[in-house]
Amino acid sequence: MQSGAVGSFRDLRDFLELISSMGELQTVEGANWDLELGGIAEVAAYKHGAPALLFDSIKGYPKGYRVLANIFGTQKRAAMVLRLPLELATIPLVKTLKERLKTRESKKPQVKSSGPILENVDSGAKVDVLKFPAPRWHECDGGRYIGTADLVITKDPEEEWVNVGTYRVMIHNKDTLGLYISPGHHGRLMLQKYWERGQNAPIAISVGHDPTFLIGSGLGAPWGLSEYDLIGWASSQPIELVEAPYTKLPVPATSEIVLEGECPPLEKESMPEGPFGEWTGYYASGSRSEAVVKVKSVLYRNDPILTAAPDFRPFAPANGLGYLHRLIKAAFLWNRLDEDGVEGVTGVWYMLPGHVNYYPVVSLKQMYPGHAKRAAYSVLATDVAGYHGRYVIIVDDDIDASDMDEVLWAVATRCDVATGMDIVTASWSTPLDPTISPRKRDDKDFTSSRAIINACRPFHWRDKFPKVNKISDQYKSEILERWGHLFK
User: Fold this and answer.
1) Mean pLDDT of 384-402
2) What span, in angstroms and rounded, lies between the C-alpha atoms of 178 and 170?
3) What is the crossing angle of helices 90-101 and 322-339, to 10°?
4) Please, which residues have CB within 8 angstroms of residue 128's CB and are 6 or more apart in sequence?
5) For the chain, what percent of residues have pLDDT higher than 90?
6) Domains present along the chain, CATH in parentheses
7) Contact 391/358 with Cβ under 8 angstroms?
C-alpha cells in the first residue's frame, strides 16, 4: 500500500476493521431483508461521506449472518481498496492511479489446498441459498438478489482461462438462481461456448469477499487475461485461491460465501429474471427468460458476510460500486487519450450527478484548431467511455473537471450551442438503456445517440474571449495565509 494509506488487509474482515477504525463503518441491527434493508441503504447512499453499512441481526436470520452495503460511498474507501494515498481526492487521485495503471501487469494467483471459505460445505439436500439474508432491494424487483457485488467465475472450455465478472444474480428457490449477463460480456461468451456444445457450463459465484476483488470488474481485462491476475497486481501481492469441490473452479480462499453449480443451455432450462432496479435508475430491461444456475454446493465461512452493491438512481454517491469504478474509469480514459496522442489533457473525471458512464469530462490545454473536438471523438472511440453514455464534455484547463459547478458554468458560458455541440448517432448502448424504443428492442438494436459539448473558449479567438472574474492563485494564497482562520 502506498504512502499515506492506512494499514493493509488480506480479506473482508480485515477491511471492515480498518474502515471501522477510520469512522467509516456503521452497524445496523434488526432490519428486515424485505425492502427495509434496501430502503436504509438507499437513503444513506445519497449522503456525501456516508459510512459503509453492515447489517446484522437481520429479521428471520441468526446474528452473525450479515450484509455489507454502500462499500464505496467515499473516495477514501475506494482509494484504500486501490492501495492509493488516502489524502488524495478527485483529479490528483485519478492522476496517481493513471500512472500506476501504466505499470499494470499480471500476477499469477497462488492455489492453496485449504482456506477459510471451506469452513462449511453444504451439498446435496443441504443446499439452501435462502439461508443467507439476500435482500429484496427495491419495491418493484422481481425477487431477492443475492448477487450485486458478486464474482461470477467461469472457465473457457477451449482456452482454459478463467473469467471473473460482476453480474446480477437473483434467487428463484433454495437451489436455483437466475443469472443476467448483458450480451458481449466475457462471462456470457464463455457460457455460450458450453451451450453450443449442448453442455451445462460449470459456474461458481462468490457473493461475499474482500472488496479488492471488485476491482477486476472495472479493470477491463482483455479476452484471454484473467481478472485474478490483475487483482493480484492491484493488491500488490498474489491472491490466494482454492479449488471449489464440485466444479473444480478456482475461488478466493478468503471469500465469505461461494455458490457453485451448473448453468444449462437456455433451450434446456431458463426462467423469468427481473425486473431489477438498475444503475440507470430505471427498470428498463423488465423481465425476460434468462439463464439459471443449478446450485450443487454452498461454501461459507462461520458468521458469513454477504457483500452488496445495490443500484439506486445514479446521482447517489454510493450507487452500485460508486467511487471505485469512477476512479478506475477516469484513470483508464486518461491513459487511452495519452495513447491516442491527444496532447494537453490536464484532468479527467466522470461528473456527478449521474452514472459513471454518463458525463465524462476532460479538461484540456488547447494547442491547435480542432484540438477540443479531436479529444471528444477520441473519448467516444475508447472501450472505456464508448459504452452507453450520454454526453462528452470538453473544458479548458482552467476548469476543474471534478467540480460540477465549474463544469456547468463553462458549458453555460463557453459553449455556443449552434457550433459547440455535435450529435453522434448509432452509438454502442445496452438493453438497460431506458431511451431505447420498444421497436428497437424488438429488433435488438441496442444503440443510442451521444452529444459532444465543446465548452472550451473558441480556439481562433480565445485570446479575445472575456477575462474570468476570479481572484488570482497568488493573491488567494496571500489571503489564506493572513485570513485563513475565517475559513476553517
Assistant:
1) 91
2) 5
3) 60
4) 122, 174, 175, 298
5) 73
6) 12-307 (2.30.110.10), 340-473 (3.40.1670.10)
7) yes
